[in-house]
Amino acid sequence: MTLKLTLDLTSCTGCACCMMECPDLFDIDDESGLAVLLEAHPSDDRLDEAERAVRSCPEGAIVLEQA
Ligand code: SF4
């Protein structure tokens, strides 16, 4: 299984929920104030963490694909 996270910056409001929930996967850019995806392909054993990140976003800007 391969995990792939994507971040839609056009939906991101910079609320920082993703960073607070999953600081190893998301950060907030100091200049733009929007989210930064730190790891687009987390290892399989981080599925729970990736799913938490998806759930943390009130805008639906984070999408997880599993292949
Ligand atoms: S939780 Fe969603 S809206 Fe908030 S900063 Fe992260 S990606 Fe952006």
Average pLDDT over all residues: 97
What would the principal axes of the Cα set say about the shape?
A: globular
* CA distance, first residue to last residue: 5 Å
How many domains is the backbone divided into?
1
Number of DSSP helical runs:
2
Give the low-confidence spans: none
The molecules bound to the chains, other than polymers, are: iron/sulfur cluster
List keywords for this structure.
67 residues; alpha+beta; Alpha-Beta Plaits; 2 helices; 22% helix; globular; binds iron/sulfur cluster
Offer a quick outline of the entry.
With 67 residues, the chain is an alpha+beta fold. It has a single domain (3-66), classed as Alpha-Beta Plaits. The protein has helices at 17-21, 47-56; strands at residues 3-7, 26-28, 35-37, 62-66.
Summarize the helices and strands and which ones pair or pack.
Layout: E1 3-7, H1 17-21, E2 26-28, E3 35-37, H2 47-56, E4 62-66
This protein binds iron/sulfur cluster.
What does this 3D model show about the protein?
This protein is an alpha+beta fold and 67 residues long. The chain has one domain: 2-Layer Sandwich (Alpha-Beta Plaits). Helices cover 22% and strands 24% of the residues. It has 2 helices and 4 strands, in the order βαββαβ. It has helices spanning 17-21, 47-56, and strands at 3-7, 26-28, 35-37, 62-66. The strands form 2 sheets. A two-stranded antiparallel sheet has the order 1-4. Strands 2-3 form a two-stranded antiparallel ribbon. β2 and β3 form a beta hairpin. The longest helix is centred in the last third of the chain and has 10 residues, at 47-56. The radius of gyration is 11 Å and the shape is globular. It starts with a strand and ends with a strand. The model has no long low-confidence stretch (mean pLDDT 97). The structure holds iron/sulfur cluster.
